[in-house]
Amino acid sequence: MSAPTGRDNVRAVADAILYEGYLLYPYRSTSSKNRSRWQFGVLGPPGAMETGVGEEAAMTSQLVLRPGAQATVTVTLRFLQLQHRCVERADANGFVATDDLEMDGIHHVSWDEAVEREILSGPFSLAELTAGQRIPIAVEPGRDVDPLGVAGRVIRTRWPLHGLVELAAEQIDDYVRLSLQVHNTGMSGETPTKESAVRFSMIGAHQIVTVEDAQIISLLEPPDDAVDVVAGCAHHRCFPVLAGLPGDTDVALVSPIILYDYPEIAEQSGGALFDSTEIDEILSLRVMTLTEEEKAQARATDPLAAQIIDRCDAMSPESMEQLHGLGRIVPQLDDEIPWWTEEADGSVQPDVDGVVVDGVLVAKGTMVRLRPSRRADAQDLFYAGQIAKVATVHADVDGDTHVGVVLVDDPAGELHEWYGRYLYFAPDEVQPLATTEKEGSS
């Protein structure tokens, strides 16, 4: 399997932005949290914001480029188009809309889904951009009918979207300031209502900007000679950051969510959870506590919700452990106690539990080398490089993990261990020793 490229990283983060807030825990259409949706990057039709029924119609941003002689720019606009799923029950007079239809033990519910859309503009030369470019956007409406045997049918309806992408470039000394504007121009002068505004909105809108024979300058850490050019940039409802692999300067992500340069999806994350930057571990545990009836309702709400439920149901203790990143307390639990339940709390024992450090389970008896960090107390710095034996691993009320150790070369070590006077370090301040190093230290 080949290593991910910078473009792979950009797509992964962009997809997370596209669906952020798409569906919130507990992932059921009946939940009040899911009756007001689409939190980020929503471009409503003109008039929606002014009348209080939707979001503003535009987002704007500016980037700074260091161009070569043959520099070109390509802009990809991505967003979701709302798709309403209406379930209809068959009766003697035809079909009647219903919120929920059960067929063969499976519930089908009416719900607002979404369809991914992507508009590519370019590549444009700097000469073309200096003259200004206006790219119209048109997304067709649609209506799909899927029968549910003789019991009913599902109708999926999409409404037309119209917009405009405007690009312009301005030369400033050795740099070019690139302006990007995206406008929703839909509904043709109609007065939007709360229901129609979301139907004619571009949801989760963001842009991926790629350049050839040019470098995109970091707006967060610009070089000294570009500071003034960057300071003159203006942004509204979005902000561009460098994207891809660290060091890449040919891709920028214009995001409606505040990000740093080179954002990435945590490798510990097993998949999207959509829930407005909720912590994966906590949210996965919450999903596991849903009743079977609640899980069935979530699965019926949306195929993406069904994927979340199935993934959490199949999650092992090892998978949950990965969500902790570097350190993870690993309780040694009785096989009769489900590892994620409330009852498992009583099985946490500091003299038995462990924490995973650099892929190694550190627990009582593990030999480690101490690596105090700069945040350590001055006294702890005297122990840098010392070899110690782990005596306890536990977490405090704030959720921080502590490793209690006894120094191997301390003449009073056995006494300290006997009455529990340990030195405490964070998991990233201890380094598990290899077998050969253990033997050499004895």
UniProtKB/TrEMBL annotation:
Domain of life where this protein originates: Bacteria
Stated name of the protein: Uncharacterized protein
